Amino acid sequence: MKQFEDDDFEIPPAVPPPPPAPVNAPVTPTAAPANGKAASTALTDTPAPIPTRTGSPAYTEDDEVCDFGDPEASRVGDGYDRIRPDKSQPDLVVRFALMPHLKPRKALVHWVEGALGKSQRRCASKPRELPAYCCQVLGESRYHVVVPAIQYLNCSTTGAYAKDYTGPVEFKLGFVDLSPSTFSAVGGLVEDDGTNNIYQVDVTMKRNGQKFDFAMRKCVWRNRPEVAQAVESAMQRFVATGGEQKLHKKLGRETTLKEWRELLAGQVAKAESVTLDDDEY
Ligand SMILES: [Zn+2]
Fold first, then answer.
1. Is 155 helix (H, G, I), strand (E, B) or coil?
2. How far is the CA of 271 from the centre of ligand 1 (A)?
């Protein structure tokens, strides 16, 4: 759990992670009894062993068979996407909740545009050392932060649920990618007083020109036992199946000094540092 320690970011302490839920618990919410104790009861169960490859059913040719519309076959990337309103929908409000199960991670990056297109690459400079070649050519690198989150999928286009809504709550796992200024803006939505913090609320996100506006909303997932159970199950599974590594990859492409030299050699004019506005984050 500690191999990416340099990425750990200082954020108000997360609420203590809940006791582990059974790793194999279904994501589909199960009906909660009227007393609403289902989630807490399930979460105190003895954790099931983490499934491993050796424990998985043997691969068969049936695993290759699929139909059109198969979500796995049509998935782009790792299915763990950045949460933000799309540029094509400037008025859409996206609603999400940050997940305390994994710490936020930070990294210095350069945004470069070269022959191979635009990419976010990890800066090669090390703390307490002189700026590396990438910084000498492109200027100072900048931090960005990735935080695991769930995005609500069936709220309104203004990010709202009807008052006293009791219907199903659809969500998907993803992450938010924040610049230093948006990281401060989100963290500043809730004053951490020991019991209340940014992980206890929902957040809405809306485009405002080249920037994003954030607002705090009452948390939906924590206040619905069956939703809380589904979110906990999904996050436990994510953590148990390489979630930390997936989050790490979202920080940008690792680029060695040699690769930076090749990337920037003779094409400095083309591979210029892209303006780092909030829209890129
Ligand atoms: Zn650099």
1. coil
2. 13
Residue with tokens 């006293």: 164
Tens-place pLDDT, residues 178-202: 998 999 999 999 998 888 999 999 9
For residue 114, the CA-to-ligand 1 centroid distance in Å is: 16
Strands 171-178 and 81-82: parallel
- Using CA atoms, how far apart are residues 174 and 85, in angstroms rounded to an integer? 13
* Helix ranges restricted to H, 51-125: none
CA angle, residues 176, 239, 156, in degrees to nearest 5: 40
CA of 78 to the centre of ligand 1 (A): 27
Ligand 1 mean position to 155 CA, how many Å?
40
Rounded to the nearest angstrom, the distance between the alpha carbon of 240 and the centre of ligand 1 is 33
- The rounded distance, in Å, linking the Cα atoms of 155 and 161 is 5
pTM: 0.71
